[in-house]
Design goal:
Elements (H helix, E strand, L loop, with lengths): L7 E5 L4 H17 L4 E6 L4 H6 L4 E4 L15 H12 L3 E4 L7 H5 L7 E5 L11 E3 L6 H11 L15 H13 L6 E5 L11 H13 L3 E4 L6 H10 L4 E3 L7 H10 L2 E5 L2 H8 L4 E4 L16 E4 L7 H12 L9
Parallel strand pairs: 1-2, 1-4, 2-3, 4-5, 5-6, 7-8, 7-10, 8-9, 10-11, 11-12
Helix pairs in contact: 1-5, 1-10, 6-9, 7-8, 7-11
């Protein structure tokens, strides 16, 4: 920033929901340290609304790049994107996309006055003073706070959060009414971007039935592409449930839905971090013991279930009932 504390700072992180939420505490620290600066987020096109809820002033869509798998590379749009980046003439661009092997050569094309971020030893590092060796050993939230500390910006806290509005809750009221969803309810999210992270639908169904028998309404969540998966869980259940997969494309409505839930049951996916961000207890099923820094920091309110021979429904149900014991018991009809 200049002598007045004003500057034009951009962050590059073209990743998914959980990745953005986990970087939220670092971006909160950045905003507090640079209150007069304009913060621009460069990310996947669908993340514009989310970036605003995480404190950014502006958004620029990223058209993809070879070697970054989150979206197809748009070769026609990419030259125009680079021209726009150079025209911005940012004071600082932070590469917070990952270890930098692919992304550091990319951000070096943005024409910023200064770059900062992560690098992988033995690979290209634009500026040794402003780049931090990627701290793979740390939990994901702390990795980003470590980068900010490296740049002289202290952490405020490591709490995930997502701003929700009255409009979000009003729209949720309509959705709940349309689908005759009663409270209290438990959300079950059976999907994940990587198939190997998905717990078996029959296991989710078993947990759903056990909770439904105890009085909780079961709400299945997911994207449009996960509607069939959620539907398979619904079909395997003997108790009634509601499939909202594909019905909550707006991040605010989805956040409000999870915020009002008594519990979230899901795998290692972005919805686990969303539950943390809106302060809803969760049970998270990890399919591998190597969890790569992604479990929640709070292991009291958010329970990680993992077993080398596979997680059984009884294990997840035990943690779910433990967490639900702190909530008002549902009235039974």
């Amino acid at each position: 920033t200049d002598s007045t504390g004003r500057g034009r700072i951009a962050v590059f992180r073209a990743l998914q929901l959980g990745d953005l939420l986990c970087a939220g505490p670092a971006w909160r620290a950045l905003r507090i340290a640079c209150p007069l600066s304009q913060l621009t987020f460069i990310g996947l096109p669908w993340t514009e609304e989310l970036s605003k809820r995480l404190g950014f002033d502006r958004f620029l869509p990223f058209p993809g790049y070879p070697g970054l798998p989150e979206q197809p590379f748009d070769s026609a749009a990419f030259p125009r994107f680079l021209d726009a980046m150079r025209a911005e003439s940012f004071d600082l661009v932070l590469q917070m996309h990952g270890n930098g092997i692919v992304s550091n050569p990319l951000v070096s094309l943005f024409g910023a006055k200064q770059l900062g971020g992560y690098y992988s030893p033995g690979h290209y590092c634009p500026d040794e003073s402003a780049f931090l060796a990627y701290p793979a050993h740390l939990p994901e939230i702390w990795r980003h706070l470590a980068l900010l500390r490296h740049l002289g910006i202290p952490a405020v806290d490591d709490r995930l959060s997502l701003a929700l509005s009255d409009t979000d809750h009003l729209e949720l009221d309509g959705l709940l009414a349309d689908h005759q969803i009663r409270t209290p309810y438990v959300c079950i999210h059976p999907g994940a971007r990587a198939e190997w992270r998905c717990w078996e639908p029959r296991h989710y169904a078993a947990v759903g039935d056990a909770l439904a028998h105890r009085g909780w309404h079961i709400v299945l969540t997911g994207s449009r592409s996960e509607r069939a998966l959620a539907g398979s869980v619904m079909e395997m259940m003997t108790c009634p449930s509601t499939n909202l997969a594909g019905k909550t494309s707006q991040i605010g409505v989805l956040g409000a839905l999870i915020a009002r839930a008594s519990l979230m049951v899901c795998g290692d996916t972005g919805l686990s971090h969303l539950a943390t961000a809106v302060d809803t207890p969760s049970v998270i099923i990890f399919m591998r013991s190597d969890q790569e820094g992604w479990p929640p920091l709070d292991r009291v309110r958010h329970r990680v279930v993992c077993h080398p021979k596979g997680v059984m429904p009884e294990q997840a149900l035990r943690e779910a009932l433990s967490l639900l014991s702190f909530s008002p018991s549902p009235s039974r009809v």
